[in-house]
Every structure is written in C-alpha cells, then in structure tokens.
Amino acid sequence: MSSEHNGSVGQPSAAVDRDACIGSGNCVEVAPNAFVLDDDGMANYLGGGNDSDINAASSSCPVAAISRS
Amino acid sequence: MGSRDRMELTAASERAWASRPRRIVVAGAGVAGVRCAFELRRRGFDGAVTIIGEEPELPYDRTLLSTELLTAKRELRYLHSAEDYADRDIDLRLGVRATRLAPGEVELSDGSRLTYDRLVVCTGGRASMPSPLSENGVITLRTAADAWRLRDVLTRCERLVVIGGGFIGSEIASAARERGLSVVMVERDDTPFESILGTDVGKLIRSLQESFGIEVRCGTTARGIQKIDGEYHVRLGDGDTCAGDAVVVSVGMMPENTWLSTSDVQTADGIVTDAYCRTTMPGVLAAGDCARWHHPVYGTDLRFEHWDTAAKHGAAAGRCALGVAEPFAPIPMFWSEQNGSKFQCVGRLTGWNEVRLEQRPGAGFVAHYFRDGMISATFAVDQPEEIARTRTRLREHFEELLT
Questions:
Q1: Chain B contact set for A42 (CB, 8 A)
Q2: Which of A19, B98, B202, B221 is 20 to 30 A from residue B10's alpha carbon, by CA?
C-alpha cells in the first residue's frame, strides 16, 4: 500500500491551468515551497517541491487545475 | 475558543473516543467522504477503510454537473481512478447506501452490515422538490444521473424554465443559454442573491444574467406546474404563467440524515457536531454538506454546501477520527461559473452591515462586506486578486483567534 503515487524519475514538475484556476490558495497552503499566488490572485508553480508536495497541491485544488508535467 | 467547541462527554463516551480505531467506515462517496478516506491513509492509518456510496459511478467532481457537463465541454471528472483506491487499500462499495445506524454497526441497503470503530457520515444531501412542483418529468439536479438526464433534455428542448435563481439555478440557466435555448429563471427574491449579497450586487448580477439572454423573473415563486400536451405551464405567485418544454427545480438541498433518525445522532438541519466533527453518538463523526458543526472562529453552528469546504471538512474529519485534536475552522469559499465569468467569494456572507462596491468597467466588479468595520467577506466577478487579498486578511484574523 503506497501512501502517494510514484512520479516519474527525476525532478518533479507541475503546471497550472490558468483558465481553470480560481485562486483558492489551497495549493499555496499545502505546498508553500512550490506554489505562490501571483498579483492576479492566480496560482503559479515556482519549480521545486517534491512528489508529495505536488500531489498534495494537485489533489487540494478544487478545480483540478494542477497537473504534473 | 468557546465552550461549545467540544461535545460534553460522559466518562464512557470519553473512553470510546480515546480508543484506537481499527475499522473506519465512511458513509458517503462525495468529495468529503473521499477526502476523508485518503486523509486516513495519508496519516498512516493502517486499519480497514471502507467507503459506502449510493451512486454507481466512481466518486466524481460534482461542481461540473451544473456547468461543463451540461454544455458537453467535459464529461464526468473522477476524483481518483479505481487504482488509486486499490493502491491505498480503500474498500469502495458503490451502489449501496447506509440505511440504519446502531452502536458499532451500520446497516446497508443490500441488507449487509458493517462494523466500525469510527463512522464518518458524509452523506451530503438531496435536491429539494416542493410537492406542488413535482409534476412528472420536472428535473432536479444533484447527481451525475440527474445531470445526464438534464443534458439530454437540453439537447431536445428549446425553452427551459429554471425555478430558483441561486448559484446552481443560475449555472443551469447559463449553460442552457450557451446551448441556444431560451431560458426563463424564476427567483423568489426581488433581486437575485439579494438575501446573501444585498440589492446593489444582486442588480449587477441580474444585468449580467440578462446580458446572457436569460429572462429573469424576480419577486415571485412557482406555485404549481401542469403538463399539457408535452408543454409545462408554471403557475407563478404573481398570477402569471410561464411555459417551457422542460422545467428544472433548483431550490436548494436537504441534508441527507433521515437514515439516522432511529440513532442517537442529533440532527437540526444537518447532523450536529462539535468543532472536532464529533456527533452526539460516540465513535460517529460527520462532515460535508450534511453536517452542522461548531465553527470555533465564528463561534456559531454552521452548515455549508460548498465544494471546497466539504473537501476540507472530510479531511479534517479523517484527522479527528484518528484523534488529532485540531478544530475545523475553514475560511468559507465558493465560486461559480456563468457564461465565462468567474464568480468568487471568500469569507462569510451573513451578519454584514456595510458593503463597499467597486465596479470596473468591462472587467467585472468587486464587493467587500464589512461587519462593524471589519471585513467579513469579498464577492468578486472576474477579480481574483481581490479575493486573494481578502483571504490573506481573513487568515491573519483566524490565526490570531485560533492561537
């Protein structure tokens, strides 16, 4: 039983769909080292963060705007 | 924090809550139930986890049912794949619902029984259908099956009547307009959303809706529906009638807690819990749309019907089921999509006594709601940065009060 997915080998990465983003701030709350809300109030991926940060951010997003890339 | 944050417990129930759970049952496979189960595993719980879900589909994103599913831009979006549940050893039982609760045991609709050390009730709600409106063929929207049926109706009809101008009703009206139907929306308030957002904001929303081509009939209610030769005639309180090939009733939901009526779980427009998601029955917790919990910052019992709150509530109930002493104190948040505009709200829209409205020509508007000079909520159309600003201020305030 694994607690999180195993991502691809190497540096994890994520993308935010800005059309879908509603600026809930959930990703910033669960993974503050990987995501930030910009001046427009939308989520931005900063780079960095480990697999579990990105998975947590992705599953916390109410509009499924965060995908691994 | 106030004295209402925690249930008053007898010594026996104190012991029951202090015991280490081995079997956790989650009743309800909406976002609250699913988040709860995943949180249990994320926290390393290695006992049995079972989710009971009434609908046959894998748990899905309910917010799309009134928007992109109706416009056929998107199909059902599952919260997780079947493998995600299997990988985590979460036993997902679909197509059955909980029918009766006894201490330590839940009875299911297929006649089977499940024992539990902790039960987390996330049974959500059902769409309200006032009996004078329940004419054959009239649609309510809550489940995926409802949404598919409504979408099918939208492809065949030309004129839709939507009864209820709340967020779901407005989204349905907007989706139907996008599909080219003529749409009449009947709203009880004199202005849409007047009772929660105030008259000035309500008027702006109404003009947005009218600019989409929705005919907004305010200040009246539907009194009855008659189907004559395939056409629905909706009788209004103001004496008028409006006609359509289809009618949707979207007048809110009822928390699904009737199955608990023979148990010791107290209900009062929702399942009553303390700030730690604990009901009045030892070992039984509740979260999501069906739960009325004591919000430690607002100091009052609240029940929300918002996706994001339900998701966080489910996760919080999972932690509480494992004995983590962390009160559930979310900043309320919701959003709505209507004809390409994003409506967003953060904070609490009750008890405000001042609203400051800023209109941005061609770029939506923002309304800040204050209670005795202190910001309580912000509602914005296409102004996400204003939402972020208010959330930051509210978070600071929450943190101050919770520490």
A1: 384
A2: B98
Say whether A62 and B42 touch across the interface (CB within 8 A): no
Hey, which residues does B293 pair with through a beta bridge?
B273, B302
Q: Which residues of A touch B46 (CB under 8 A)?
A: 1
Q: Amino acid letter at B260? A: L
From B344, which residue of chain A is nearest by alpha-carbon distance?
A22
pTM for this model (two decimals): 0.94
Closest chain B residue to A59 measured between Cα atoms?
Answer: B79
The predicted-structure confidence for B268-297, as pLDDT tens digits, reads as follows 999 999 999 999 999 999 999 999 999 999
Predicted complex: ipTM over 0.90: no
The reply to whether residue A24 touches residue B44, judged by beta carbons under 8 angstroms, is: no
pLDDT digits (tens, 9 = 90+) for B297-310: 999 999 999 999 99
Nearest to B388 among A2, A41, A62 (CB): A41
pLDDT beyond 50 at B206: yes
